[in-house]
Each structure stands twice: as C-alpha cells, then as structure tokens.
Design goal:
Mean pLDDT of chain A: 95
Oligomer: homotrimer
Order of helices and strands of chain A: HEHEHEHEHEHHEEEHHHHE
Shape of chain A: globular
CATH topology of chain A: UDP-N-acetylmuramoyl-L-alanine:D-glutamate ligase
CATH architecture of chain A: 3-Layer(aba) Sandwich
Helix content of chain A: 40-55%
Strand order of the largest sheet of chain A: 2-1-3-4-5-6-7-8-9
Largest interface: A-B, 30 and 32 residues
Strand content of chain A: 5-15%
Number of strands of chain A: 9
C-alpha cells in the first residue's frame, strides 16, 4: 500500500526547504537524502523567500525559535503559499512556552498548512488555541492507547476538519486523518524516543512524500509515518550488543536509505477508521 | 561508589535546559537521553525563561555565543536561580576572546552556579577575572599531571571556596572539588580529545546528575565526570580496525546508554584528597 | 605525491576558524580533528575577529547565512587578511538566492581568498558576477565530464587568473588550478552526494592543508580534494549490507582519521593539465 508513495519519491525526487531547529538539522538533511529527496536550509527572511521559491515543498519546525527565524518562517510560508507548494508544520514544544504556542497558532491561523504533525499534547494545544471549536477531550492525555483510541480518532478527525488539512499525531500509535478517513499506524519502536530528532526527521519526510505525491496528501503523509516506524524496526534488528542510541540513530537513517517500496509494503501495519 | 548517582538519574530522570553551542548540540541531546535524562534547547530570551521554568536543571555553554543568545543565557539563569534549579556553567573558550571571557565572568559574578566545569586554562581565566583573590599558580600550565597535582588540587579547592560552588577541571586527570574535598579521577582516554564535544556532553551530564542528586552535588558531579571517562574507555574497547573518531563519538554515547551503575562502580578510578 | 601534504598537517597541526552553516558544522569539526587539524567556531563579529587572530587559517562557508553571521564573516576576513592567514571561501548556494550570490561576490571582491571552492554552477555564478571578464562557457553545464573537460579546465584556469588565487571545482571530476597548472582528480564516489556535508568538510580540510603547507597552496588544495575522495572510496569498501548514508558519513570521517600519507599516495588518481 505505502510502498508506491516511496517509489514515487525515489523516482521524482523532492527538494525540501527546511526551517528547523539546530539540534537535529543534520539528521533531517541526511534522512531526506536517504529517502530520495534533497534538503535546503535557509532562515534569514530574504534568503528563505528565494530558497523556498526554488524548492518543491516547505518544512517548518519551531524547535529552536528566535525572533529572526520566525520572520524567516513567515517569509517562506508566504512564498510557498503563493506558489502552491506543500507545507508541513511541526509545532515542537507548543504548550511548553508562550512563544512557541503563539508562533505555532499564528502560523496556523495565517497559512494553510497541508499537514500539521505533532505529538498529542502539542496538537491539543493547537486545537484549543484555534478557538475551541474542536474542544479537547479530557480523556485523551499524553498518550494514545488502544483504550482511548476511539476518542483519539474522533479528536484527530475533528481537528483535521477544522484546519482543512491533514493532522498527524505521532506516538506509540500514530493517527493520520484528513477529517474523513483516519489511518491508524502501529509501526515503530519505543526505543526511538531515546534518540533526539526522529520526530523532526519525520516532518521532513512528510514534506518530501507529499511533494512527490501531491495527488494524495493523506496517503503520502501516512506512508512517511509508516516508513519512519518501519525504519525504526529494521534498525533495531541491526543492533549489536554494544550499540546504543547514537548508533541506533545512524541505523534508522541507514534503514530509510536501504528501504524499497516492497519492504515498506511488507512491514506496514495500518488500519483505516 | 558513583553507580548510585547514575541509578538515581535513570530512576528519576532529569529534564535539562541547554543553551549550548550549535557545533555539538546534537551529541549533547543524545548523551542526555543515553544517561536517562531529557534535553530541551531554547535560546531566545523570552522562550528560554519559560523553558527553564519547566525543566529541572540548566546547562550554560558559551561555545558559539552571539549577542542574542547571551540575553537568553541571562534570562534562563535568572529564572533558574529564582526557582532554585541546579545550574552548570561551561566557559568554553574563556581566555580565547574578550567576549567569551567577559561573558563567562559576568555570568559567574551575577549568578550562583552550582558547578563550573572547564579545562585548566579556562578555569584559570575565571579565577583571575574573579578578582585575583585566588591567584593562579604559575606552575599550573595547560595540563594537570602527577607532577603538579598537589598544586592543582590546592588551586581547584581555593577557587571552589571563592565561588562557593563546585569546580570541575577536566583533562588527563580530572579534579572536582567543593573547596574541602577534591575528587581526583583517572578515567578516560587521550583519544577523546580527537572528537569534538566530549566536554560539552560532560557539562550536560553534570547538569543531569546533580539535578537527579540534589542532596550531593559534589558526588553527582564527580560521578558524571567518571562516567564520561569510563564511557570513553568502554567505547575504545569496542573499536574495530577501520573505525575512527566519528565512530568513536557514536560508541561513547552508546557506552553511556548501556552503562549500569555496577559497570560504573567497577571501572571508576578515583581518590579523594 | 599528495601524502607529504597530509604528513605535514599531521605533524604541524592547523587551528582553523570556521564560520560555516549549522547543518554540517559537527562533521566539519570532526573531519578537521580526523586530519590532524583543530576547529574553532565563532560567528558574532567581535568574537569572530579575536578568534581568527589566534587561529592559523579561516574557512568561510555561506550555507546558512543570516545578517549577523555576514558581519562575522567580514570581521573575520578583515582580521585574517591583516594577519596574512590563509582563507578559503565555499560559496554554498551562490546562484540559488540573491543574498547568497551577493554575499559571495561581495566577499570575493573585498578580500583576497587563497582558495575558492564550489561546484561548477556556484563557481560559474561567481565568474559572471566578477564582471564577465572570464565569461562562462555555455557548454559547461552542471557537470564536468570527460567530454567537456578541456573547456572546463580552460574555464577554471581563467577564473583562477582572474581572482589571483586557487579555484577548486568539485564534482565527479575535480579541477584545481592556480591559473597555470590544473590538477584533474578522479577520486571519490558518486554515493558521497547522498550525504549532506562532504563539500563543507572538504572546504575545512582545504583550509587546514594550506595552513599547514603555506609554501604550496595549489598542491595543498589538490591534496585535500584527493584525500576527501580517497576517504569516500575507503569508506565505501568498509560498508556492510545494512549500512546506508548515515553510517557512510561516519566511515568517511573515520577513513580520514586512519589515512596515512602512504595510503593517500597509493590511491590518488590525478593528472596535471
């Protein structure tokens, strides 16, 4: 199912402009190259505008914001919107500080993102900030489990309707919805949370997948999420006794590099709700 | 001896706010995760203040300063001081430029750091800048050896008294003192200096260890220093013929990830003076 | 032939100040250490000026420019010029945005770079911007091949004359000229383009090689280019079935770390035109 999106990315490529945090930026660049895309980074407003113009998609990650890079994000979003490029928002740390919360909500209110991807607590913050139309189910706390899955699916669908885009909530179980359908994905490993940046890498992959598969943004997003999880599984199988999280980080990107559409098809674990 | 501090960190966790240089920031994040802590990075003043508030400890590293991040450091230190959080200062490059020297000394004069960690030349610069009360023994040059060890221990003790905190001087022999006791640690390998960032990683680990062990800051700091050295030793034993410094970097973080309290106890090499 | 330049770098060391993009900065630091040099990074103008003063060489890479780091580049170039330090310019993305193009051309017009290193499209942009005296052969497109090699060599020689420095154009075939002689180097592997930052690493290596070999800048630059290519070849031979671009990145730096002058001499593939 998801393999075809990966094949298309590998065939057509996708040049992605990333305004992302400086903590994980190198891994973001390498994972894009691993999947068949290409990275560019530029965050000074005037540079960001022009760099976006030569790219196919835009990935905005608010992990280590400053006043100057916020201007760069706005400039890049303006240009990408104007050109009809695909845009992804990763609201890293929304809810943890007012600057992050406000920046994410301002961007969301001002620009039409194709995909907003975060963990459940970040997405809940955005859903509240959007005006409460969606409401946040108090039963959905910081983790999506089999127990609260129905309510979580409902929440994600509602928020996707509200923003008129795709919402991807990642965790032990991943949910990706366009408001009507919701992919429930059960790939990945818990140990991925012991590495910095798998979430940032995923946002960049989502941008590359939807840029290469513009006719099916929901499927492309779900494919990127599944691929990241499958890479985490394969990478774990390749771990030796003395390996730890630093090597695991390398092996995940390596697994993306070596993954074929067929391998993804074989290992993907999803259902549609 | 030191294993118990590591166990407590792994049991309780420690969320550490890092304002650190962009050269080694990814390794800093991964080593914190490897040891059982968690990293957050934020350097814009208003963001830094709020992010510090939700963390348990603060790690300030002046490696790639700019005017904006200095404001972030001050804001974070103010908030951390107000909340009684543990704070570590790594005065990277103090003495190499006036901006670095002045920033380190200004921070040190304005805020009460729990630990100041640097190499001997950086610490000497701070000791002089502090007003010369301590004085700097001309016999202690850029390396601490068995030959000048007595004088070095005396110097570190004096400076710790002067700043009313812990001083950690790293090198072939590491010295950690609260002004009364001085741990002399002989773990580690020379090859660690052929990797960028082991010092930056250590500062973050110190912040995590003392945040998880607030009742014994001296012991926690010494434990972090010993652990980094032991990780360097274990990692070196895991090197293959074709491996070099890039792989060594990964294996050190891997060794931290896989280290148990017992392993640390077995390999630690320290004496108290 | 090239081994002697590497030996001299390992014997004498070379402290290189890098103002470089934050995407690949960690690899730049580690590759310098791998080759026998040492890295320092500082980009705030006043800090950059003083840090340059204590270094032996300067490496300017415009990959993730902002208004503040441009000031740092100018300050560092001024100081390095004043002190007669070797300076390398890597005009990453020149031609992709006006800010990058203008910054590269302004720096080039204002300062005498010992080496300008880029891919063919970046170098063509600079050659045009310099005033068209050189002219750009329309037959030389985005790749140098055996077919257009004669014209490419001629172009590189002309541009080197024009800037009165060394020009290094990297690609499947690398050309390095001082205006009279042109080294044509055929080391390296195509897979290196699937990793971020091998170009940035090379610029830093060039700075280290010419700082340690000031009496022969052309030879030193060619040696650095050949070494990076040879490292890519050795690293590829060390790849396992499940390895991908992230591990390849580590193995390339590892190969630099383990390379002796003799190994470089044995594997170098060059001709002089």
């Amino acid at each position: 199912m998801f393999g075809k999106y990966l094949k298309k990315l590998r065939e057509n490529g996708a040049l992605i402009h990333n305004i992302t945090n400086y903590v994980t930026v190198n891994d973001v660049a390498n994972v894009l190259l691993a999947a068949g895309g290409s990275p560019v980074m530029a965050d000074e407003a005037e540079d960001a505008r022009e760099i976006t113009a030569i790219c196919g998609g835009l990935n905005i990650n608010i992990g280590t914001l400053n006043r100057n890079t916020i201007k760069g994000m706005v400039a890049a979003c303006e240009k990408a919107s104007e050109l009809g490029h695909k845009i992804v928002l990763d609201p890293v740390g929304a809810g943890a500080s007012s600057m992050r919360t406000e920046t994410a909500i301002n961007l969301m209110n001002r620009f039409q993102f194709d995909v907003i991807k975060g963990n459940i607590s970040e997405i809940k913050v955005l859903a509240c900030g959007k005006g409460g139309a969606v409401g946040v189910d108090a039963d959905i706390n910081d983790r999506i489990t089999e127990k609260n899955l129905d309510k979580a699916v409902e929440f994600v669908k509602k928020f996707a309707c509200d923003i008129k885009g795709i919402v991807a909530v990642t965790g032990a179980i991943d949910l990706i919805s366009d408001g009507k359908k919701c992919f429930v994905i059960r790939n990945g490993r818990e140990e991925m949370s012991r590495i910095t940046g798998t979430g940032c890498q995923l946002s960049a992959l989502v941008a590359a997948f939807i840029t290469a598969n513009p006719e099916d943004i929901l499927g492309g997003t779900a494919a990127a999420v599944a691929m990241m999880g499958v890479a985490g599984e394969i990478a774990w199988e390749n771990m030796y006794r003395t390996d730890g999280n630093s090597t695991y980080r390398n092996r995940i990107i390596d697994a993306v590099y070596n993954m074929s559409g067929e391998m993804l098809d074989e290992r993907e674990r999803y259902e549609i709700r």
